[in-house]
Structure formats: C-alpha cells, structure tokens
C-alpha cells in the first residue's frame, strides 16, 4: 500500500510539474511534501506490517539500518529513473550521499558500500542515456532540465572519487546477495582501514615506510588528488615557505565555516605538513592538523572515529619528536600566532622560536575521546577489546608529553598530565599494570616486537576485563581527593562536575568497603557499603549502568546526559562481588543482632535491605537450592541463626564471586572465623535464657574456637551487658543471672513508664500554659522532651514540621488545663490526660518517629536526645543502675512508638 | 628495649637544648653505646654556641687533648659575635638593669616605646638587638640570662611573630632551669596564644601544638599536678587531633598518665577508642596493655604486657625518673603504674566473674597466696569491691548484682508523686495569682 501511495503522489507531482511553468515552485514544494508524507507512510507501513504480520520484531543494529536506508534510496532512484523525474533524482542523489557519510561514520571506513556504487552506476547510465537522447531533453520541463544539468556536473565530480569501485561493479554487476558482499567489505574495512587511512594523509618521510602497501590504488589516487590540487604545477621540492604559509592561512580561515568538509581539511593540512620547509613550520602545521582532527567529530555525545584518533595520537607524537629534536622551538598558548614570520627560521636558527599550541590540551582531548569511545562501544564485543588495546598507546603518549613538560619545567601542566595518567592506572591491579607497561615499552621501542606486543595486549585486555574489580583500594582512595580539587575550578561547580564527584566518592566508598572486608573489618565494610545499597541504586551511583525507572519516563536529554556520565566497562567494579560483600557483612552483623533483640520491642535494625530480603525469603513456602548471591546468603543466614555454622560456612564458601577478590584462601579463612564467632554469639543470645550455666569447654567444641577467643567473646558480651551472666572461674562455666522479667513484671514496668510519660505531659502542659520555666528540675526535663518533639517534627521538614511539634505541646496543654481546671475526680483526670497524651503521641511523636525511622542519622540524634537526661541523673549508682537508666531511656522510646498503635 | 625507645621520635619536636637531658638519660641507662651518644651530642652542639662543652665531649670521645681547628675557629667567632651583640644591646640592658628606671615603664606598651625613644634614644633597633642577644645567650647555654632578657623583651615587643618566638625561648629556659611552676605558666600562655592566634596556615598551628605537647612533657612528669595537666591538655579536642595526625607516640605518655591517675578513670573509654584507631601506626606495650584489658579481655596477655611495660617505663626519660631516698633509688612512676594496672586487671576480672580462685589470682597478681588474700580483704574493706572470701574453698565470691525488678519499678515511680505534687501546688499558686489579679 505504501509504495502505491508513494507512486501516486509522485506521478501527480510529475504531472503537475509538466503542466505549467508559473506555479513551478509550488509544484516542487508539493512534490517534496508528498514525498515526505510518502516517506512517513512508508515507514509507518513497514512497522505496521512488522507487527501485524509476523509479530516478531527484528532488532537490527544501527549499521544494518543505515545500509537498509541506502538500499532503499537506491530503489527509489530506480523508480525515479523509470518515470524520468530529474528533480526527484537530484534529491535522491543528495540523500544518497548523506547516507553514505553516515554509513562511513558508523563503519569508520572510507570505502563506499556496494549499494551506493550501484546507485551511482544507475544514475550514471541513465544520465548518459538521457544526454544522448536530445529530443527527450528538449521535451523536458525547465525545472527538470535544470536538475538534469545539475546532476550532470555533480555526478561526474562525484563519480570520479569512486571510479575504481564503479569499474569493479560494472565488471561484476550481478553480485551475490548484496548484504553479504557488504558485510564482507565491512569486515575488510575494519582490518584494512589503517592502511587505507594512513596513506592519503601520509605523515612525513619517517613514517612513510610502513605505508608501502598500496594495494588499493584507486583510493590512493582519489584521496591524494585534492591536496595535490593546491599546488597544481609544482612538485613538493619547488614549494616555498611562503606558499605553504599562505595556503595554511587560507585553510585555517576556512575552518569552522559552514560547508567546509572537515575530513578534507585534515587531508589538506597533512599534505601541507609534508611540504613544510622548516621544522617550526612543520610543527605549526601539525598543530593545526591535530586540531582539525579533533574537529572531525563535532558532537559531544559521540566519539571520534578510532582511525582518526590513532592518527591523531601519531601526529602528537610527531609534534613531540619535533620538539625534542629542536629544543629551541617553544610551544605555548600565549604567543601571538605568527607575530612575525617566526616559523621561517630554519632548523639552524639560534634562539627560541615560538609556535602557538598546547600539547597538554591535545593530550587531554585525546584522553576524553578515548574515554568517550569506551563509553559508547558495546563492552561485550571484540571492538571493545581492540579499543582497550589503544590504552597503552595513549599511556606512551602521556609519558612522552610528561617528559617533555617536565623538561620545560612546567609543573602545573605536568601535574595535569600525571593526573590523566593516574586516572588510567589507579584502578588496575598490579599485574595488569605490569603487562600494560611492558606492552607500552614494546610499542614505543619498535614495531619489530609487534608480535610479542600483541600477546601482551591479549593478556592485558583479558586481565583488564577480569581483574578490574580487584582494584587497589588505597590507590583509588588516594586518587579521589586528588582528582576532586583539580578537575575544574571549583567556583563554577556545574552539574557535570558534581555528578563526577558523586560517582568518584561512591566508587571510593565501594573500594574502601571491599578493602575493609579484605582486612576483615566487617563493621567498617558494612558501613561503607550500606550507604551505597540504601537506595537500591547501586548501578547509578557507581555510574555503571542506568536503572530502568518504573515511575517516570526519562526524556532523551536526560538519557544522553546519563550516558555521558557512565564509566567504561573495564573500569567497573563487579557488582556481584559488591553485593556479596555487602550481604555477607550485613549477615554477620544482623544475625546476632536479631537474636539479641528477639523479644525486644525496640528492635534495632542494622541493615534494612538485608532484613527485607530475609522477610521475602521467609515468606516463600518452598526454597530451592541457592543460585545467586542472595540465595546463598539467605541460606547461610538460616543456618547461622540456628547456630549451624558449618553449613553456613559451606554455603558462603561455595559462592563463585570470591575468586574475584584475590587471596581467596585467606578471605575464606577469615570468613570462617567470623562466622564461627557470630554463630557463638547468636547461640548465646538465643539460648542463654534457657540455661543456668554453660560450660566453656562445650562452647569451644561446639564452635571450634580456641579457649582464649571464646573467653574473650563471652567476656565482651558480659561487659557490654548483652549477656547477663558471669564466669565461674573454678568450674570454667558461665553462670547466667536470669534477669528476664516475667510477663507481669514486664507489664508493671511498662505501666510505670507510662505513668512517667503522663506526668511529663502534664508538666509540659503546665509549662505551655504558664510560659515555661516554672519548676526547677522539671524545666530541664521538659526542654529535653521538647527537643525530641522538635526533632521528630523537624524530620518532616521545614516550618510545617516545627509547627506541628509546637502544636502537639499546645494541644496537650489545653487538654491538661481542662482536666485540672474542671476539678473532676482524680481518676478521671488521669484518664483524660492519658487519652490526650496518646492522641498527642500519635499526632506528633508517633508519626515523627516512624518517618524518621528510615534514617540512621536521625536515629542517632534521637537516641541521644532520649537518653541524656536520664544518664546525667543517677549514673553514680553503679553499673546496674546505669543499665537500668539506659533501659528506661530506651523504653521511653518504645512507648512513644506504642502510642501510635493505640 | 631499644625498640621502644622514643628518643628518636620525640627529638625532632624538641629544641636542641632540650634534647641534652634525653641523651644524658640514655647515657646513664646504657641503652646505646657511649660513643654513639657522645657523637650525637657533638652533632647537637655543632649548631649551638656551646663550643666549650663540645670541646670537652670531643676530648672524652677521642681521648685526646687536641681539638679540631674548626671548633677553635667557631669559638673565636662566637665570642666575637657575642661582643657585637652585647654592644648593640647595651643601652637597653643598662636601662633595664636599673630598677629605678624600670619603674618608669607602664603597662601601656605604646607609651613605653615612645618614652624609651624620646628619653633614652632606645629605638626598635635596640629592642631587636635585645632579642638577638637573648637568643645568643640561650645558644651559649646561659639560660637564666636568656630567660630574663626574653621576659623583658616581651614587654617591649610589638612584632607578634617575635613575641611567640620569645615565648618559646622563655619556656625552653624555664624547662632547662627546672622551674616547673613558672614553666607551667609559660605553657598556658603559649597555649592561649596558639589557640587564639589565627595562623596563616593550619599546618604551622598544628606544628606548634605538637611542639607544645612535647615540651610540656618535661613539666608534666615533674610537676606535682602534672598528671592532671597532661590529661587536660592532651584530651582537649585540638590536641588530641594533633596527636592523631602528627605524634602518635605521645599516646604512651597519655596512657600512662591515665592509668596512674585514679581520678580520671572516665576518660579510659575515649582513650581506648583512640588507641584502636591509631593501632596501625603506633603501638607499644603500654597501649597494648589497655587494649588487651579492655578490648580483648585477654588477661593473660595483659599480664604479659604489664611486664613489658615495666621495662618500657624504666627506660623512658620522662616516665623513668629516678628518685633517690636514703640511698634507695626508686622510680615512683613505675610503682604507681604497676599498682594501678594491677588494680585495673583485677577490677575487670571481677566484673565478669562470679567466683574466683584465690590461688590463681595470686599467681596472676604476682603475689603469694596470703598477700593476695590480704590484698583482696583490704579491697573489700575499703568498699571497693562487693565480694566475700570463702576461705574453705579458697575462692572469692562476688556479690550478685542482678537488678531487682521491684526496685526498678519503685525507682521509676518514686519521683512521680513528688512531681505531681509540685505541679498541683504550682498550679494552685498561679491560679490564685490569676484570680487575685482578676479581682483587682
């Protein structure tokens, strides 16, 4: 249907255009529009049929898409030829060229695909045919004739470029399936593009020897032609300095203008560099070559073609060579470009020659481009590994630049370069770095050792992929504060910088966590990692991928921004390992914690994500054997909380991820030890209420720990008052003091606490009424509780929260006054006040508490507020009293929580 | 014990002259060979003006009567310079030595300067010369003279940098003259200046703090109230920071002071935190002792460390100060330390035990059975321990301290009545006042 429509509209426009002259413009526009519509419909039709016909969506790569477009345009050309519409043909031709550019950018090759050549051939044939047919020409409408003329010129010019290909095509027009041949050619391109590209813009003689394989003659001449045109009648020997200078200025002026072909500029400039007379001039031209190469890719989100990048690095190396060879040439950014013909001075010139340019800036740009390309390339392809192999090349360059800059004594610049180098190195484990350095040395020495180099590279790439996670923690930590202040001037903190900082900090946190884990500092490791995992956005925080958001669609702008923020794959921290470490540390902390506070109402939660996973796990009716990290940890948790440490250890040790951590045995050993300890603690927490005494020897055998350790652990628990027991030294037993209150006692104590709260609220009410400061000791107490209320309200943010906190007091106050002032019975008073309080608690405290619960920071503040007044009171009364007081402080908390339940 | 010797760590933070006592101490203790120490002394003296002393040492080191030529030259140079400085400072010194004239000085610095300038032609040059002269005197080892001049210089000095230098100089003089009371004042004055002054760089402030702490060690371990002083100074936040960033070895002195000082037990918790934080950079038997006792509850280890501590204390300049009484040489700090440390161990031990065998205990405390029994009995009598001795079984039985739930509840509710009462009475008072005012 689409093609029918399309055909119709086309013929219409054709007729129109033939009908009359005076509305020619309109007609053409109409034609265009029609085609646009047609285009739209065609696409629509395509996708429709895709979906409706076979219900299968073929995911095609961008490359394939581009090729399809090319092919489609060719088909269009064929159609237009059939109806002799030159206006349309001209458009199609232009589109064809544009699409070719796109394709070439994608494949990073210069060779035109076969489809394109086919289109050209079609056009050329038809053109010749039409030109021969004089009568038909005469019959044409003016617009059509105009287009025909235009095409005649354009096509000739264009086809010259592809003469060789066209001939090849003519020789063998009936090729096999076109896409096949395309692919084949593409593959060729990938491998041969070095040769192809190096040739045309050949650097000076010193590098030209590796370019002596001009198998692709056509390409060679065509590319070479343009630069040659600049000095048509001269061979390089006759060109003088002035000519080069003049030409250079011409080219520079053209730079950045609309319609200037950037790639062509590069070619022209490189040709000029070959012709340059003095080293200084050559340097000058080279500088422009490099800048022009950077200009080739104008977009911020896509990267520079790899081939161009490589050439660019080579060019910078050439610049460095020149600079090293002629130490009297000084390159700086401040010198006015070409004040007086400085570059004319020859190699033997004494005294400094100033040339404008900045190698460090070039280097940084190179680095950025490398980074961007790594961001863009799919990390699971061979391309990525190929690209990674360019890193040593860059490192060589950076080293050279640094040497040069240090020789100049410009320490600021040296620091900038060094920073770039550190950024490339810091995340690599030692072996990778060694391998890379070796490779780098090999490369810089000569091409002869290329084979060995390739081997090294292979290894390098592989190890880099695997070993990324094994980062040197301290190094990255050191790097972070280093990078942060130097990245950009701080006053202009822009969004991008902030994002980078955040990512860096989180990366450092992750590394630090892994490091602490390796050093068996469980608590520290968990603290580091829990922040990462708190929001469940690890990937985003580490810039290792974008989380799909369920709630709101991102607009393309945001997506682009995010993509630019991503870390290249080889710099990723292995998320599975990170998760394993996080969950295992959480388990080690949380299992005894859960056991200790099983019957306690003020349950302290150490790791929320872990608890949530555990809940989910417990809800399952059937649990299969563990598969992923979570399953493993959950299984281990189950075992550990039963005191079955052997099984827990077995499950944890069976995880694969540990092999990424290095020193695997030591880590497993450490884990084993930790789990034994925690199992012991859990056991004691869980079962000590049911024992009168526990034998030390029995504990030792149960948990496979040495006596000193068991003794130390249990003693610690006693001192920390986690275990109400004491040692009986002669019999080597732990004697428990069963202090767990009976139900009645617990209720009584709760009741006492509530009474306390009641009195407090009464006092507060009184204070609020009379303006505070009434009673001496009470005033202080009240202020403290008031603080608490404020803190609770403050959590809700802003003035509103504060108002709420105040409100609570006010409301309670009114209630209190009513009760007292009304002079009803004491019992009723109590009742009324009590209810009132509960309402207040529900409104302010209860809400505040539950909302504040999520944030640990708030909890800290909270507990300190809750406790201080009590502890400052009767602390001298001994340990038990102190404990009691602390308990009371804690219970007060739990009470206000209960308040919300009533 | 040389491995725990802190002289090398402490010396960089001290003045040249302050290092001499340390070296003397080392010489007495025979930790290093005499030759080494004498060489170190000569090196120290090379930059000072105490050339005569250096010559003496040189003689005893090489057992010769000859003195190298450069020392002789230096002597001549020092004497010459002394003359020059003396002359240039002479007018001011003669003025200051006349008590009648000094009376004319007032507390107003501006006035003083003007007065000197107008009446005695003593300008800033002379004042500067006084400073130089005092410094030179100090370099020559004439500490009392230097101290006097510096004191007077400070009243006239307008340059704040200089006045700090003068303060430091004065402190050094007082320390070397062993005037501990005056030195304590100087330390306080310096501390104020350092803390109040806004230094150009926090780094130099940190450095000065570190110096101050090191210098004050001399005072704290000699002055009567020093053990409180050191805890106060070192535990103040900024100085604790300085210790943690710059001078971890000072922890040894802090720990010792805390252990010895019975009244400052409350800081132990904080101290342990610091020790654990800094464990990776610094640890010695003294800090490890605390760690064993309060982190790992490893009593065997604590015993072991305690024995090492003894040696460390004896061989430390600041801690191992000897006192000779009636021909007996005692190291008071060591005895105090050992006694208190033992008490620490025992106390902690009792806290987690219900029943302890006295025989075992006596072993641990390095006493015989009867002594241990007596010691415990004393402790119980002084109400420092809630326990009973079961002599039949040979055990100490701790009193159970399980909290009584009834007591707890009574404790909680006791004050409620009173508080409610106070509340009502207040209420009545206010309502009465309100009605009264309404009636009026």
From TrEMBL, chain A:
HAMAP family: eIF3c. One of its GO terms (biological process) is formation of cytoplasmic translation initiation complex. Residues 799-824, 840-849 have a biased composition (Gly residues). This is Eukaryotic translation initiation factor 3 subunit C. It holds the Pfam family EIF3CL_C. Residues 828-839 have a biased composition (Low complexity). Keywords: Cytoplasm, Initiation factor, Protein biosynthesis. GO terms for molecular function: RNA binding; translation initiation factor activity; translation initiation factor binding. Component of the eukaryotic translation initiation factor 3 (eIF-3) complex, which is involved in protein synthesis of a specialized repertoire of mRNAs and, together with other initiation factors, stimulates binding of mRNA and methionyl-tRNAi to the 40S ribosome. The eIF-3 complex specifically targets and initiates translation of a subset of mRNAs involved in cell proliferation. Residues 569-741 form the PCI domain. Residues 1-31, 39-58, 172-234, 768-902 are annotated as: Disordered. It comes from the Eukaryota. PROSITE patterns: PCI. One of its GO terms (cellular component) is eukaryotic 43S preinitiation complex. Residues 11-27, 177-200, 207-218 have a biased composition (Acidic residues). It is found in: Cytoplasm.
UniProtKB/TrEMBL annotation, chain B:
InterPro entries: eIF3e (IPR016650), eIF3e_N (IPR019010), PCI_dom (IPR000717), WH_DNA-bd_sf (IPR036390). Its main location: cytoplasm. GO terms for molecular function: translation initiation factor activity. Transmembrane segments: none annotated. Residues 219-403 form the PCI domain. Signal peptide: none annotated. SMART domains: eIF3_N (SM01186), PINT (SM00088). One of its GO terms (biological process) is formation of cytoplasmic translation initiation complex. The keyword Protein biosynthesis applies. It is found in: Cytoplasm. Keywords: Cytoplasm, Initiation factor, Protein biosynthesis. Belongs to the eIF-3 subunit E family. Component of the eukaryotic translation initiation factor 3 (eIF-3) complex. This is Eukaryotic translation initiation factor 3 subunit E. The gene is LOC112276854.
């Amino acid at each position: 249907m689409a093609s029918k429509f399309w055909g119709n509209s086309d013929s219409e426009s054709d007729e129109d255009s033939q009908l009359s002259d005076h509305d020619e413009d309109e007609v053409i526009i109409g034609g265009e529009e029609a085609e646009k519509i047609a285009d739209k419909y065609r696409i629509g039709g395509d996708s429709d049929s895709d979906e409706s016909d076979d219900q299968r969506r073929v995911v095609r790569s961008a490359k394939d898409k581009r090729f399809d477009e090319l092919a489609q345009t060719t088909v269009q050309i064929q159609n237009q030829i059939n109806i002799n519409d030159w206006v349309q043909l001209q458009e199609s031709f232009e589109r064809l060229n544009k699409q070719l550019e796109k394709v070439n950018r994608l494949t990073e090759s210069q060779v035109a695909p076969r489809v394109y050549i086919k289109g050209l051939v079609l056009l050329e044939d038809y053109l010749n045919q039409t030109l021969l047919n004089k009568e038909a020409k005469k019959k044409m409408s003016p617009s059509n004739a105009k287009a025909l003329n235009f095409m005649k010129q354009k096509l000739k010019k264009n086809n010259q470029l592809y003469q060789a290909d066209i001939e090849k095509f003519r020789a063998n027009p009936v090729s096999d399936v076109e896409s096949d041949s395309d692919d084949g050619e593409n593959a060729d391109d990938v491998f041969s593009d070095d040769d192809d590209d190096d040739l045309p813009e050949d650097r000076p003689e010193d590098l030209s020897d590796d370019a002596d394989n001009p198998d692709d003659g056509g390409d060679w001449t065509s590319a070479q032609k343009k630069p040659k045109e600049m000095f048509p009648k001269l061979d390089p020997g006759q060109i003088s300095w002035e000519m080069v200078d003049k030409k250079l200025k011409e080219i520079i002026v053209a730079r950045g203008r609309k319609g200037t072909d950037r790639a062509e500029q590069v070619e022209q400039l490189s040709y000029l560099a070959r012709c340059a007379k003095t080293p200084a001039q050559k340097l000058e031209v080279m500088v422009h070559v490099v800048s022009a190469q950077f200009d080739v890719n104008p977009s911020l989100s896509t990267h520079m073609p790899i081939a161009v990048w490589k050439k660019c690095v080579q060019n910078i190396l050439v610049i460095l060579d020149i600079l090293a060879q002629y130490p009297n040439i000084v390159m700086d950014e401040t010198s006015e470009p070409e004040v007086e013909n400085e570059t004319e001075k020859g190699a033997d010139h004494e005294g400094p020659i100033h040339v404008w340019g900045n190698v460090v800036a070039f280097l940084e740009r190179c680095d950025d481009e490398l980074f961007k390309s790594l961001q863009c390339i799919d990390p699971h392809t061979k391309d990525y590994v190929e690209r990674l192999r360019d890193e040593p090349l860059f490192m060589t360059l950076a080293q050279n630049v640094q040497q040069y800059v240090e020789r100049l004594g410009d320490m600021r610049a040296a620091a900038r370069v060094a920073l770039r180098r550190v950024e490339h190195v810091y995340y690599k484990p030692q072996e990778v770095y060694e391998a890379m350095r070796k490779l780098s040395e090999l490369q810089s020495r000569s091409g002869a050792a290329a084979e060995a180099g390739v081997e090294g590279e292979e290894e390098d790439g592989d190890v880099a992929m695997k070993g990324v996670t094994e980062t040197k923690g301290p190094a990255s930590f050191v790097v972070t504060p280093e990078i942060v202040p130097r990245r950009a001037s701080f006053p202009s903190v822009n969004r991008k910088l902030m994002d980078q900082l955040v990512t860096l900090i989180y990366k450092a946190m992750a590394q630090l966590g892994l490091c602490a884990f390796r050093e068996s500092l469980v608590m520290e490791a968990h603290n580091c990692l829990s922040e990462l995992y708190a929001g469940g956005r690890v990937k985003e925080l580490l810039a290792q991928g974008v989380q799909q958001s369920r709630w709101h669609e991102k607009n393309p702008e945001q997506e682009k921004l995010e993509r630019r923020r991503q870390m290249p794959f080889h710099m990723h921290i292995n998320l599975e390992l990170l998760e394993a470490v996080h969950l295992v540390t959480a388990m080690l902390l949380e299992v005894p914690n859960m056991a200790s506070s099983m019957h306690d109402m003020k349950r302290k939660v150490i790791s929320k994500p872990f608890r949530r996973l555990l809940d989910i796990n417990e809800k399952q009716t059937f649990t299969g054997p563990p598969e992923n990290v979570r399953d493993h940890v959950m299984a281990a948790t189950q075992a550990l909380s039963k005191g079955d440490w052997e099984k827990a250890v077995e499950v944890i040790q069976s995880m694969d991820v540990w092999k990424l951590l290095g020193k695997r045995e030591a880590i497993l050993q450490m884990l084993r030890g930790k789990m034994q300890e925690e199992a012991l603690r859990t056991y004691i927490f869980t079962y000590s209420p049911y024992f009168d005494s526990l034998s030390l020897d029995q504990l030792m055998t149960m948990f496979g720990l040495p006596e000193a350790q068991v003794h130390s652990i249990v003693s610690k628990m006693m001192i920390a008052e986690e275990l109400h027991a004491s040692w009986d030294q002669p019999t080597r037993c732990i004697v428990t003091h069963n202090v767990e209150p009976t139900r009645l006692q617990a209720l009584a104590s709760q009741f006492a606490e509530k009474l306390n709260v009641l009195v407090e609220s009464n006092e507060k009410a009184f204070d609020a009424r009379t303006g505070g400061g009434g009673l001496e000791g009470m005033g202080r107490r009240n202020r403290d509780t008031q603080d608490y209320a404020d803190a609770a309200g403050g959590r809700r943010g802003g003035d509103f929260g504060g108002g709420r906190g105040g409100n609570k007091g006010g409301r309670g106050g009114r209630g209190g006054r009513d009760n007292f002032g009304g002079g009803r019975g004491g019992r009723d008073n109590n009742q009324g006040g009590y209810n009132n309080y509960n309402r207040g608690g529900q409104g302010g405290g209860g809400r505040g508490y539950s909302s504040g619960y999520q944030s640990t920071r708030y909890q800290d503040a909270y507990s300190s507020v809750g406790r201080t007044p009590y502890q400052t009171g009767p602390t001298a009364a001994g340990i038990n009293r102190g404990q009691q007081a602390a308990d009371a402080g804690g219970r007060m908390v739990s009470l206000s929580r209960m308040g919300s339940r009533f | 014990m040389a491995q725990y010797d802190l002289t090398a760590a402490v010396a960089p933070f001290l003045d040249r002259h302050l290092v001499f006592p340390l070296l003397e101490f080392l010489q007495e203790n025979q930790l290093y060979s005499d030759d080494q120490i004498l060489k170190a002394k000569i090196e120290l003296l090379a930059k000072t003006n105490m050339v005569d002393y250096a010559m003496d040492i040189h003689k005893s080191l090489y057992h010769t009567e000859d003195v190298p030529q450069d020392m002789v030259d230096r002597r001549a140079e020092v004497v010459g310079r002394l003359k020059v400085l003396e002359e240039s400072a002479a007018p001011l010194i003669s003025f200051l030595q006349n008590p009648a004239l000094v009376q004319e000085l007032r507390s107003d610095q501006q006035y003083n300067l003007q007065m000197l300038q107008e009446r005695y032609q003593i300008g800033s040059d002379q004042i500067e010369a006084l400073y130089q002269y005092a410094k030179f005197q100090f370099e020559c080892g004439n500490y009392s003279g230097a101290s006097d001049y510096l004191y007077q210089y400070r009243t006239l000095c307008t340059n704040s940098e200089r006045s700090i230098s003068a303060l430091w100089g004065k402190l050094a003089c007082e320390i070397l003259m062993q005037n501990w009371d005056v030195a304590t004042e100087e330390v306080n004055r310096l501390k104020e200046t350092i803390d109040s002054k806004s230094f150009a760089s926090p780094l130099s402030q940190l450095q000065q703090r570190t110096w101050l702490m090191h210098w004050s060690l001399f005072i704290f371990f000699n002055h009567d109230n020093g053990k409180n002083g050191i805890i106060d100074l070192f535990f103040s936040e900024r100085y604790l920071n300085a210790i943690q960033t710059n001078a971890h070895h000072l922890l040894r002195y802090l720990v010792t002071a805390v252990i010895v000082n019975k009244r400052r037990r409350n800081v132990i918790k904080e101290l342990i935190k610091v020790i654990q934080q800094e464990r990776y950079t610094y640890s010695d038997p003294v800090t490890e002792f605390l760690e064993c006792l309060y982190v790992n509850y490893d009593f065997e280890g604590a015993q072991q460390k305690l024995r090492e501590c003894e040696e460390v204390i004896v061989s430390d300049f600041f801690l191992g100060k000897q006192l000779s009484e009636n021909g007996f040489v005692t190291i008071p700090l060591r005895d105090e330390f050992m006694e208190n440390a033992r008490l620490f161990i025992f106390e902690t031990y009792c806290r987690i035990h219900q029943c302890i065998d006295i025989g075992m205990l006596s072993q641990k405390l390095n006493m015989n059975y009867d002594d241990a029994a007596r010691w415990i009995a004393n402790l119980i009598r002084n109400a420092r321990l809630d326990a009973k001795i079961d002599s039949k079984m040979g055990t100490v039985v701790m009193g159970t301290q399980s909290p009584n739930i009834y007591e707890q509840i009574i404790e909680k509710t006791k004050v409620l009545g009173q508080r409610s009462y106070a509340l009502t009475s207040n209420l009545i008072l206010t309502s009465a006042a309100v009605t009264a005012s309404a009636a009026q």
